[in-house]
Specification:
single chain, alpha+beta, five-stranded antiparallel sheet, 10 strands, about 15% strand, elongated
């Protein structure tokens, strides 16, 4: 099974490679300028880029590991009806996040503007109608600013191809801007290519390539251990252990696909849509099944009760809702994403997933409390012991999760401009490590062995305490017989016996 799964992932990788031979990093296909304050703006990209020393062998930048940003085929196109006048400059402004204050300005401490206003022009700080910019004091020669303009009757204006070498590690932002209201319907076409020393992966995502390789190896080791035990004691395997096997297989697939996704992205410069969708889908299925398994085990299914009864439809509905919400969130976040930039849509889509996760946790611990009480009452010590360990592991995982969520909120709220991009990869990596650790604990508790069946539900009448509680309301209770009544009956029997002897 693992071999076939790996073969499938490799086949998907090769198929998508064929579809993405001609690759770039950021494509602009008829992007319209948006009004921002008193300027018109297109966000061209934001990426963390590492600087590496140039190769002394004299080879070109694309092969010696240099970091750069290339502008290729950048075309500004305006409607024919708006081509009867010449224009001022249309800018491409590339700056490092620490130099963000070099763009824009304000007069007398008022509202900050991108385009030069009449008040600022009177102060001699800029020329009215142009984008305000000045050189950085800490990074000589930056920001990099290029411009083109339209002549009368020109419908297009093309920027000359150029390459900007990155000589300092940082979070770089590219914006196309202009200040001409009559060009409100102008669109941008072309592409820019952003490259780190080791490939096209954005700086914040680059460490995840090695991380997913490590996680693939970790799942492989866990899979070898689990499948060997599974094959050795296959006659004693529980339904729960079959589900764990499925989760491990999905985890192996997910990590392998993420590794292939990032490797292809690093090589070509674009996200391979096919691999990304499969990685997202397998990951979402794995997380959904994992939560459903933990929930049903907490209810005692397969261990102390044969079925979920009337709760089955509710469990399935919760799982289906979580899958849909999580799948949409992951697709929006990952498919086609090439920037170190997250929008408000991701935050909005995260809310239903967070609510459903909280509902899962509440239902799981409520069910665990009930199951532990019943096991304690029936003195099923073997099952009680494993459930206590399971509860402790879940409690630790929830406490650590809450702590990490608080740290993540703090991290994102204090890093508005992505200045901590070099450490941002730790946020998603932690969740993978935590879920893998919990999976390892579950595997240790329910490892296939010759004694596996002792943890299974036994239909011998000793575990009939999970039936619907409503039965106790309609089941007639036996008529109580007191000791006096028993004594009276025995006395009457003795009298009858003595009479028989006399006769």
């Amino acid at each position: 099974m693992p071999f076939l799964d790996s073969l499938t992932a490799v086949s998907l990788l090769l198929f998508v490679r064929v579809l993405t031979v001609h690759a770039s990093v950021h494509n602009y296909a008829g992007v319209k300028f948006a009004r921002k304050g008193n300027a018109y703006v297109v966000h061209g990209g934001s990426e963390g880029i590492y600087y590496s020393h140039p190769n002394l062998n004299g080879s070109d930048a694309s092969s010696n590991g240099d970091a750069y940003i290339k502008f290729e085929e950048i075309i500004f196109r305006r409607p024919q009806e708006a081509s009867n006048f010449s224009t001022g400059m249309i800018y491409a402004i590339l700056f490092e996040v620490d130099d963000r204050e070099t763009i824009g300005g304000s007069a007398y401490g008022g509202q900050r503007a991108i385009c030069c206003t009449a008040d600022l022009a009177k102060l001699g700080a800029c020329k009215e109608g142009e984008v305000i910019h000045r050189l950085s004091t800490s990074n000589p020669g930056w920001p990099e600013i290029f411009g083109v303009s339209f002549d009368v009757n020109d419908e297009t204006s093309t920027m000359q191809p150029r390459s900007v070498q990155i000589t300092r590690t940082g979070m770089y932002n590219l914006y196309f801007m202009h200040c001409e209201p009559r060009l409100a319907d102008m669109v941008l076409e072309g592409k820019t290519i952003w490259k780190n020393p080791n490939g096209y992966l954005p700086g914040r995502m680059a460490p995840l390539l090695n991380f997913y390789g490590f996680m693939s190896l970790a799942f492989l080791v866990l899979g070898i251990f689990w499948f060997s035990q599974y094959a050795r004691f296959w006659k004693e395997v529980l339904h729960l252990q079959n589900c764990i096997t499925l989760v491990i297989t999905l985890g192996m697939l997910e990590m392998a696909l993420w590794y292939f996704d990032y490797a292809e992205f690093n090589e070509s410069g674009v996200r391979p849509t096919g691999i990304t969708i499969w990685a997202v889908t397998f990951g979402t299925i794995k997380r959904t099944i994992s939560r459903l398994i933990i929930l049903t085990v907490s209810m005692g299914y397969g261990v102390v009760r044969p079925t979920l009864g009337g709760l089955t439809s509710k469990v399935v509905m919760l799982g289906g809702t979580f899958f849909l919400a999580s799948e949409v969130l992951e697709l929006v976040e990952h498919v086609g994403a090439v920037s170190d930039f997250s929008g408000k849509a991701i935050l909005f889509l995260s809310l239903p997933v967070a609510v459903l996760d909280a509902f899962f946790v509440l239902w799981i611990f409520t069910s665990l409390s009930s199951t532990l009480n019943k096991l304690q009452a029936k003195r099923m010590m073997a099952k009680l012991d494993i459930y206590r360990k399971f509860t402790n592991a879940l409690a630790v995982a929830v406490i650590v999760s809450v702590g990490w969520i608080c740290y993540e909120l703090y991290f994102k709220s204090t890093d508005i401009y992505n200045e901590q991009w070099q450490n941002a990869w730790i946020i998603p990596a932690f969740w993978h490590v935590l879920s893998f650790s919990l999976l390892c604990v579950i595997c240790a508790l329910w490892t296939p062995s010759q004694n596996s069946m002792r943890y299974a539900y036994s239909d011998d009448g000793s575990e009939e305490f999970d039936k619907d509680d409503t039965l106790t309301l309609i089941k007639p209770s036996p008529v109580p017989i007191s000791a006096k009544d028993v004594g009276d009956v025995r006395s009457e029997d003795d009298v009858d016996l003595e009479e028989d002897k006399t006769e």
